[in-house]
Design brief:
Layout lengths: L1 H8 L1 H34 L1 H44 L2 H8 L6 H6 L5 H7 L13 H21 L4 H5 L4
Helix pairs in contact: 1-2, 2-3, 3-7
């Protein structure tokens, strides 16, 4: 959200953040699958590694379309919220003349693609901020929360034993 809001105020810094995040994602998602099989073998034993790795690969296959659908749903919801907010700021007569419908019909008009944010920005009052860079904020918060929950679950499941780390066996 910080870097998406920076697109409007400081595009160079936002692009630098984007490049850094892209690099980190490529490193993580290219390195993690390579290291996953040996780590699973070390944690659960070589005998069980193949079955566990197959299950993990199946969850990745399912997570890809489900994650994309979830992000799309969040974006569509955010788009409608921003369009509704801007539509209520516009002059109702100008809105009706431009889009052929009332402000109360905004959901139907957005679904029909008759109303878009760029078209709304043309009739919006001066000083209205274009919300286009902020459309994925909710999705980013959801993904960050999911990642935080996954990290907490991972830490709880694979918490190292303090006795093993200190070398005491009693």
């Amino acid at each position: 959200p910080l870097s998406t809001s920076m697109v409007v105020t400081d595009p160079h810094a936002a692009f630098t953040y984007f490049k850094s995040a892209s690099f980190a994602n490529v490193m993580f998602f290219a390195g993690a699958p390579v290291m996953l099989a040996p780590v699973v073998g070390d944690l659960f034993g070589r005998k069980e590694a193949t079955g566990i790795y197959q299950r993990l690969a199946a969850t990745i296959v399912l997570a890809s379309p489900l994650g994309a659908a979830l992000v799309t749903k969040c974006r569509d919801n955010s788009y409608l919220q921003h369009a509704t907010r801007i539509a209520h700021e516009c002059d109702p007569c100008e809105f009706s003349a431009t889009f052929g419908g009332e402000v109360g019909d905004i959901a139907r008009l957005v679904d029909a693609k008759a109303v878009t944010l760029p078209l709304l920005m043309r009739i919006a009052p001066p000083g209205t901020v274009d919300p286009t860079p902020l459309l994925y904020n909710d999705a980013f918060y959801l993904l960050a929360g999911s990642s935080g929950l996954a990290t907490a679950c991972f830490a709880a499941a694979f918490r190292p034993s303090l006795r093993k780390m200190s070398g005491k066996t009693s």
